[in-house]
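Field notebook, page 297. I keep forgetting to write these up properly, so this time I am using the form the group agreed on. The chain and the ligand, NAP, are recorded exactly as supplied. Prediction of the bound pose follows.
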Amino acid sequence: MAKMKVLIVGASGFIGRHLLAELCSAGHEALGTASRHGVHGLHKFDLLEDKVEKAIPKDFFAGSEPKLAVIAAAVTNMDDCLIHPEKSRKLNVLNTQKLVRYLQSHGCRIVYLSTGHVFDGSVGNRSEDDPTCPINEYARLKLEMEDFLRIECPESFIARLDKVVGYNPLSWHLLAEWWDLANKKSPILCVEGMEISPTCVRDVARGLRFAMELDLSGIYHLAGPDKIKRIEFARQFCRIGHFDVEVAEKPLATFGFLDGRAVKSSLNSEKFRQATAFAFANSRTILEAFFLNAKGY
Ligand SMILES: NC(=O)c1ccc[n+]([C@@H]2O[C@H](COP(=O)([O-])OP(=O)(O)OC[C@H]3O[C@@H](n4cnc5c(N)ncnc54)[C@H](OP(=O)(O)O)[C@@H]3O)[C@@H](O)[C@H]2O)c1
């Protein structure tokens, strides 16, 4: 496999740091950014303030290896996108577009991380060709970037993700949140009818590497094979983790979210499986690996 040079914008985040590790261990040259100073091994690059020309070392663009840039940086909290619309649009769309143009003009192919929330959530198991209809500001911004890339950078790879979880109980993801609740004997409450595709963050990182190595372009869903009710996943979590806590569903309106939520955000990743032969871990395997790892904490 030819060595690639990959820039990860947002390598301090949940997915970015796993991707950085995945690329390095596969022998590629990867460079990451964080918006803050002093994040070990990462270049400081704040998309709202810093000039990209100054943040990215010039020698990244030198050499004959294929060059790619993964855009993982964003305002990722859905309600924050509603509360701070100008900042979110500037970061998630306007300055990201400027960055993409700069990277493209320096020979980089773009990998963009989008979301299953570009659909309205009325039905799950969505495929790439299903009609989009975002119902919150976060997803509208994601779709605006998807449209921009499809038109201006058609060679880009756009990965739509659903509920990405990890194995570290002290990190910030759904299983870590449930681990904390269950250890405090607090109930685990789920949105009524919510359906997700739990996806392991290491699989997302590996899947993105495969996509880059295979030079894929276009929109692909990268998601675990299960389309599972959130409450079922929570029950499985308690069963496998031997937790005896209440698990219940409540109507979406009682959760106090400020913006809309796609209730069924599960994704069909068959197109990606056919293109790469990559098999994502199912929800049971993810939970077993989580609890195996959690034993050390
Ligand atoms: N995790 C999921 O389940 C999921 C699902 C669907 C889609 N996605 C998408 O996947 C991407 C990565 O998600 P994630 O879970 O890894 O998010 P995350 O943990 O919240 O990380 C966000 C990243 O964005 C960076 N960032 C924030 N503000 C910035 C700014 N002003 N300038 C430059 N960088 C900035 C952060 O850097 P600092 O920490 O240094 O501020 C961090 O590296 C996002 O675009 C997200 O929308 C994630």
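OBSERVATIONS:
- The chain has a mean pLDDT of 97.
- The pocket of NAP is lined by residues 10, 12-16, 34-36, 39, 45-48, 72-74, 76, 91, 113, 115, 161, 163-164 (CB under 6 Å).
FOLLOW-UP: compare against the apo run.
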